[in-house]
Write a structure and sequence with these properties.
It is an enzyme of class 2 (transferase). It contains ten helices and eleven strands. It is α+β, with helices and mostly antiparallel strands and 307 residues long. The chain binds L-homoserine.
Length: 307
């Protein structure tokens, strides 16, 4: 067993249009790094957070909150030090809190000799999500820990399925620099939906899952319709309708809100279209003077890993 580890923890996109709180996928090579080492005093200590000003209090930071959940389940009093290097600012909708939650539990599991399975790690990482959004959702931490696309079939009991990743599927993400807190983005949603609306939504979830299995890009695109969450949350995102319409015009298969926003993501078949959409998204926000960062990748088949 080793005493120190360095890991990469990918950014993720949850909901994927129609799958609020159940669908998610990992990005490829975009995310954060974390170094974790054992210490002898039984404490969890965040030595440094590089990149952004985030809480180092172990009772608040998602990495240590999730790590504590794992230690409690293991009955371990081992202490650990953390250095976290973040590349995406919090409140982006790209699963940045989940990257830390999942990264923390993955690193500890490795350093303790892997007492837990990746699925068990999802449950601990969810405690980190609960700390920031008041709800222990798994749609970011599951793809982070398991890689690729995941579906939370059930929360109680927790049942997570991994779905296939079509080879030519690319994702483009734009992150306009306005903060949308997940707690607020959850609060504004309606608590009830009409049956006719629910019928449309679950038809699309089924269609999207089938599209992934069949590598049917058109089916993936036409299933990325969210009639429940997007109509409410899009008002929090500047230029949302404009960017989405233009992405579809440029050939995107589908376009929706990444997690709870404000990032917007689009799926494309092939790199060329994805790149065109990336440039378009950047221009749109530049034109109105809103600072925005754009990203493009394949779907990250591998989740959190040792580097
Ligand atoms: N499924 C969660 C939500 C993800 O949309 O609120 C938060 O990133």
């Amino acid at each position: 067993m080793f005493d120190k580890i360095k890991i990469f923890s990918p950014a993720t996109v949850a909901n994927v249009g129609c799958g609020y709180d159940v669908l998610g996928f990992a990005l490829d090579g975009i995310g954060e790094e974390m170094e974790v080492s054992k210490r002898n005093d039984g404490k969890l200590v965040i030595d440094e957070i590089i990149g952004f000003d985030l809480p180092k209090d172990p009772l608040v930071n998602t990495a240590t909150v999730a790590a504590q959940a794992l230690l409690d389940a293991a009955g371990s009093k081992q202490g650990f030090s953390f250095t976290i290097k973040k590349t995406i600012n919090p409140g982006s909708g790209m699963g940045t809190s989940a990257s830390s939650s999942a990264g923390g539990v993955f690193a500890l599991n490795e350093l303790l000799g892997r007492p837990f399975t990746p699925s068990q790690l999802v449950e601990f990482a969810m405690e980190g999500e609960k700390a920031v959004s008041k709800k222990a959702h798994a749609d970011n931490v599951a793809p982070n820990l398991l890689g690729g696309f995941t579906l939370v079939r059930s929360y109680d009991p927790l049942d997570i399925l991994t779905l296939p990743v079509p080879e030519e599927l690319y994702v483009t993400v734009v992150h306009p620099q306005v903060e949308v807190k997940t707690t607020d983005a959850k609060k504004i949603l309606k608590k009830q939906v009409d049956l006719s609306v629910a019928v449309q939504q679950w038809g699309n979830v089924g269609g999207l899952v089938s599209g992934l299995y069949e590598s049917d890009y058109d089916l993936i695109g036409r299933s990325m319709v969210d009639v429940i969450v997007e109509p409410i949350r899009k008002i929090l995102i500047p230029l949302y309708d404009d960017v989405k319409a233009k992405a579809l015009e440029e050939g995107a298969l589908g376009c929706s809100i990444a997690g709870s926003g404000p990032s917007i993501f689009a799926f494309s078949k092939g790199e060329e279209t994805a790149l065109k959409i990336k440039n378009m998204m950047q221009v749109k926000y530049d034109e109105v003077g809103i600072l925005a960062y754009t990203y493009m990748s394949k779907i990250g088949k591998e989740g959190v890993r040792i580097i």
